[in-house]
Description:
The structure is a homodimer. Chain A is α/β, with parallel strands linked by helices.
Amino acid sequence: MIVNGKHFRTIWINPKNKKSVQIIDQRKLPFSFEIETFRNVKEIAFAIKDMHLRGAGLIGAAGAYGMYLAVIEAIKQTDFVKSIQDSANLLKATRPTAVNLSWAVDLMLNKILVDANKNGEDKVEQALFMAEFIANQDAEACRMIGEHGISLIREISQKKNGETVNILTHCNAGWLAFVDFGSATAPIYAAFEEGIDIHIWVDETRPRNQGARLTSWELEQQGIKHTVITDNAGGYLMQKGMVDMVIVGSDRTSKTGDVANKIGTYLKALAAKDNDIPFYVALPSSTIDWKIENGLKEISIEERNPREISHIEGIYNDELVEILITPEKNVGSNYGFDITPARLVTGLITERGICKANQESIFKLFPEYDR
Amino acid sequence: MIVNGKHFRTIWINPKNKKSVQIIDQRKLPFSFEIETFRNVKEIAFAIKDMHLRGAGLIGAAGAYGMYLAVIEAIKQTDFVKSIQDSANLLKATRPTAVNLSWAVDLMLNKILVDANKNGEDKVEQALFMAEFIANQDAEACRMIGEHGISLIREISQKKNGETVNILTHCNAGWLAFVDFGSATAPIYAAFEEGIDIHIWVDETRPRNQGARLTSWELEQQGIKHTVITDNAGGYLMQKGMVDMVIVGSDRTSKTGDVANKIGTYLKALAAKDNDIPFYVALPSSTIDWKIENGLKEISIEERNPREISHIEGIYNDELVEILITPEKNVGSNYGFDITPARLVTGLITERGICKANQESIFKLFPEYDR
């Protein structure tokens, strides 16, 4: 997508030195835009763990590029296989609950080990090709989500005779969470491109405020009308008819259509249902966990540091600082996600099309998983 | 209630100089506890406007004490009646939407003007008596809400065989919002007093964080177990069976049981309903607007400064500072309240007892308004 008028992805090979990888350092957004360069797998592993980058699709791609850097090192070692396996373990341990990370790292690992008798430079070339393939596949899946999801926005726009379509989103399921386009934002970007009049309600998304910091920055850069609101506000906006549809992303989806997404998503789904507002979840199929039947019972939810609640980052005297917003010792239960049951989801927008949030419809789009 | 081991109300006559009024300056809580003294009506009007004090019941009491200070000044003026009326208008203009403020000021005004031929010191004594009466009535209504509401908590405690009862509350409907005891907190304080094992989930309540700042401070001072959570978290806690009941306050209640309360309340009511968790609203009957049939259509909701969303206060280097948390220009729709429709409310806890949230049950408790 566009940053200061130029096209960017969230991760790419350094054009000046193909043996290094570059990313946008997301910790400083939107206060400053900085590019970071990684020369080895340790640096990229540290960056994933320390959240210089985050988001389902992007973490996967970063794992793949990390394995590419791992190959460059491993061909200089006496035990190539051990070196590669150590790197894979290092990467996978950085965010153990992220589905895409272990998926991408394992894919790279298998490919690299299958052809382990190739010569050194061929191994490097092959790993680069594979990492680029994984990144491109992520971007392409998101682009297709946009192609399919735009029809929903177009339809509302037509019903409203071209009046502004108001879309609410929670957290950042934008291009910053993937390689490009994003999941929840892909239909939004596609609709904007087509000239449909849209306006986005951006939930600030406490405690880490990824809505107020990342989604708002993305939309601003593309020139899309939007308003940052508190997480508390969406219900009232729906009560007053100020929201036409909700689109959110998903961190993990059961094969029955239950959605684990950023904490607070469930509350918006309830409000959408109560006000007859369509509630869509946009997701590349890589976030579907084909083993899971019941999201609430089977998806384990990461509990994060309570410091995210008691402290907050922002600008004071032109400096990015962290302040204490409650002196309470009793701060906690900082669950990262909640579960939106399938019954509250109007539909899933995937790279293969839109389907209802139930097992039958999901398997119709993805028959290869129906056993 | 208790502050640092000593009993306090939120507003009182200065024991060292009966012609001045003192309050707890709530702007600095919980970071520092400071008492402020007012010597005339202008000072008290400024303090209400500038939110040194806030909350339905407390604003009413402050209006009453303000009128007492107004009488002390007015008896020195040539035109007593004009002076008193000017003061009343000054006070009522500070928070035009607050029901209790105009109610208390008008009550004082009528009483003062009816007996306008009394001599100066008698007028002062009478106004003091009346202001104390209004403050005592507020405290007593809240105490009675506690007396009635405790039965609900006791019942859950018995069902759970004495295990901890987990109660979620939103914003600050605590004693800081009234003269004493609070509305939503009154049953909590009563239950704690009786030795029932309770734990309170405190929504931080963006944008002004009255939960994280005021409710948590109140509970800490009384020694009640509690945890501050983000506004996004409550839904998931309910999904996981970690909430036994919800008690919130009300800023304005329709005679049919619709509740206007701090923005975000509606989302918690929906989640409570979806998880079969009792959702109670505690309110002195002074917040019932007997003219209103339909809360969503008829209660106009105050829209506040977007700066409350883009900026936040906290401690940096031992100093209370305000920082910018999103550089967005597009911040807004900062509605102060939302409407929880009566169908989501399990019951209303009033000073006369508990009733269902419908016109028939409300009028059974308050027959004098049934015409």
